[in-house]
């Protein structure tokens, strides 16, 4: 089954190639409106709904504030390839009626007018024209656009809250997961009308990039050398004798809550929201007389009792708790990391939640059976003690985090049109390979803002005389050796750091940070998530530029770059047009996620069926022949 990641056969976003027919675009450049949510095609989204996006896009690309009342949108009736755009534009720039065009109107639906399978190729998808607002109108109308993450955060914030037990029911949950304003990004999804993938893609970024101790907790839960405290071992042995009880829910919850209190080492309260909804237990820290959630507990006597998944019910309980008015100040400062303990009967699991611009919940552990089932108990006691001992350590860090966040006066206020730290990953510094100095930075934007799986960000350095823009990306597998080799040849952006999220444990000096590829099982990666920081290239990809406007030496540059990489003993793996950048006349490669030494790299899961991978398949070794075949397909270059 294909993985629902960025490379899955059905993407979660699409792009539209737009020709702005206006005097401010004298070269008739076609620009791509990227990262549009695929739900536009799965629901009744109208052109009037995306008109503000198009207006803002034109303003950003051409510095023209189009009067939306005069904006007209057209779809070519015949294919209009990039190479023919200039001639067509010159012939129609002053025309009253556009040739070979159908006008679309605000009430027309996206999916009724555009063909998802064919847009975003090397043809014009939409032609837009309209009058620019006068200067005096610009002064009053051209307000700063609402920052995308802020809007998504507020849209979800406004949603009517259901009781968690009702929201977790199949019917209500399916309706919620169909709407991007209400969906919880936990991997469960409502199928599209053709049952081919999700209406809303709910596989999201790893939560540890927003609160790094989540990654530490996952590592501790799998660490065979983790050493629990003796009191944790005793409490684990005690829990084993009690959690297998079959009882009515109220008595069950109270009985287990007492045993869990010894394991967790903190008071567990049953708490109700302002609307009377409750979970089985809440572990909090008190800050300014407010109970700040650290751990929410949702337990059933058995899995499936009550007709809903207790983990799903717990997710809604956390969301409702963080929506409380008393938590507004803290909610507006940070992404609200919270631990969840949920399950049915003796089956318990740990989950983690963050509320960035989306509400994301991910499993941190498998469902663990905790009742005594054998006379041989030592291994089980250790597993339970590690489970809760690691959770104890995590909650200590989480409590400290909320203390520091509350008292931090440097966190800016949350504004509609300004990037805010709560929407971005937690790491904000690294030790630079080049200078061996600590470099601090702030996030400016996600490179694919509408994509819930975006892992690449544009940042700007802090504390330097002349601030620099950098690219920060997060990835598990990454060919840092190939990247560095090509950067040294001037054929890739400079690589400043590749390592753990702490910003100081670089793969160049740490075995722990390197991870490994398991060639015996299809090249699956095992190891930590890494942060990669590199030079920002002020350039353009071939995919964004008509072929006639490529640098004259573009093909020779791509061919030379691949020869250099192969001569160095490396494989690239993903040679598509978006992974090549033209910087002036120079050609550089980017995106070395699949790169590495020949014989050591494999195609990842979830390869798109709509892309030619040179004959390669998921879990197969990537060979030089695949690179050459993709080079031929993407650039019409023969080695």
Automatic annotation (TrEMBL):
A Pfam family assignment: WaaY
SUPFAM superfamilies: Protein kinase-like (PK-like) (SSF56112)
InterPro entries: Kinase-like_dom_sf (IPR011009), LipoPS_heptP_kinase (IPR009330)
Domain of life from the UniProt record: Eukaryota
Protein name: Protein kinase domain-containing protein
Source organism of the structure: Tetrapyrgos nigripes
């Amino acid at each position: 089954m294909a993985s629902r990641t960025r490379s899955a056969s059905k993407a979660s976003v699409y792009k539209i190639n737009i020709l702005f027919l206006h005097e401010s675009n004298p070269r008739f450049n076609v620009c791509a409106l990227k990262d549009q949510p695929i739900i536009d095609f799965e629901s009744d989204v109208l052109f009037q709904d995306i008109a503000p996006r198009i207006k803002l896009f034109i303003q950003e690309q051409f510095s023209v504030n189009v009067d939306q009342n005069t904006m007209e949108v057209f779809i070519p009736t015949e294919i209009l390839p990039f190479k023919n755009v200039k001639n067509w534009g010159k012939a129609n720039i002053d025309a009253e009626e556009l040739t070979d065009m159908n006008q679309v109107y605000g009430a027309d639906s996206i999916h009724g007018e555009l063909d998802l399978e064919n847009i975003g190729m090397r043809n014009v998808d939409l032609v837009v024209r309209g009058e620019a607002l006068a200067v005096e109108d610009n002064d009053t109308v051209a307000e700063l656009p609402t920052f995308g993450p802020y809007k998504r955060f507020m849209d979800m914030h406004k949603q009517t809250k259901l009781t968690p037990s009702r929201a977790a029911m199949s019917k209500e949950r399916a309706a919620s997961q169909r709407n991007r304003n209400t969906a919880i990004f936990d991997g469960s999804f409502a199928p599209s009308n053709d049952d081919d993938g999700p209406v809303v893609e709910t596989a999201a970024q790893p939560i540890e990039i927003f609160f790094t101790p989540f990654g530490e907790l996952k590592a501790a839960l799998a660490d065979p050398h983790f050493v629990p405290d003796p009191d944790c071992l005793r409490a684990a042995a005690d829990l084993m004798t009690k959690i297998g009880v079959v009882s009515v829910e109220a008595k069950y919850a109270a009985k287990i809550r007492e045993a869990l209190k010894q394991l967790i080492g903190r008071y567990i309260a049953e708490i109700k929201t302002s609307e009377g909804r409750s979970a089985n237990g809440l572990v909090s820290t008190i800050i300014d007389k407010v109970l700040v959630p650290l751990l929410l507990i949702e337990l059933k006597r058995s899995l499936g009792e009550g007709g809903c998944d207790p983990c799903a019910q717990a997710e809604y309980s956390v969301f409702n708790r963080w929506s409380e008015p008393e938590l507004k100040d803290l909610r507006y400062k940070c992404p609200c990391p919270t631990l969840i303990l949920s399950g049915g009967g003796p089956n318990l699991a740990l989950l983690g939640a963050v509320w960035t611009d989306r509400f994301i919940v991910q499993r941190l552990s498998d469902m663990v059976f905790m009742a005594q089932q054998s006379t041989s108990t030592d291994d089980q006691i250790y597993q339970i003690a590690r489970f809760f001992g690691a959770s104890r350590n995590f909650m200590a860090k989480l409590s400290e985090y909320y203390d520091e966040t509350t008292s931090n006066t440097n966190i800016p206020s949350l504004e509609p049109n300004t990037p805010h730290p709560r929407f971005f990953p937690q790491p904000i510094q690294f030790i630079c390979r080049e200078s061996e100095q600590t470099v601090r930075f702030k996030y400016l934007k996600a490179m694919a803002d509408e994509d819930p799986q975006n892992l690449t960000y544009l940042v700007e350095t802090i504390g330097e005389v002349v601030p620099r823009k950098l690219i920060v990306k997060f990835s598990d597998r990454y060919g840092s050796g190939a990247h560095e080799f090509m950067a040294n040849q001037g054929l890739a952006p400079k690589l400043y750091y590749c390592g753990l999220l702490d910003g100081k444990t670089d793969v160049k000096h740490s075995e722990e940070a390197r991870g490994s590829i398991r060639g015996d099982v299809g090249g699956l990666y095992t190891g930590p998530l890494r942060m990669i920081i590199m030079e920002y290239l002020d350039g353009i990809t071939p995919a964004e530029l008509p072929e006639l406007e490529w640098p004259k030496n573009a093909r020779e540059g791509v061919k030379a770059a691949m020869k250099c990489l192969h001569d160095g003993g490396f494989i690239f793996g993903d040679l598509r047009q978006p992974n090549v950048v033209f910087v002036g006349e120079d050609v550089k490669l980017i995106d070395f996620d699949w790169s590495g030494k020949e014989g050591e790299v494999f195609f990842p899961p979830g390869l798109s069926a709509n892309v030619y991978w040179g004959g390669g398949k998921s879990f197969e070794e990537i060979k030089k022949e695949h690179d050459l075949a993709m080079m031929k397909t993407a650039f019409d270059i023969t080695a």
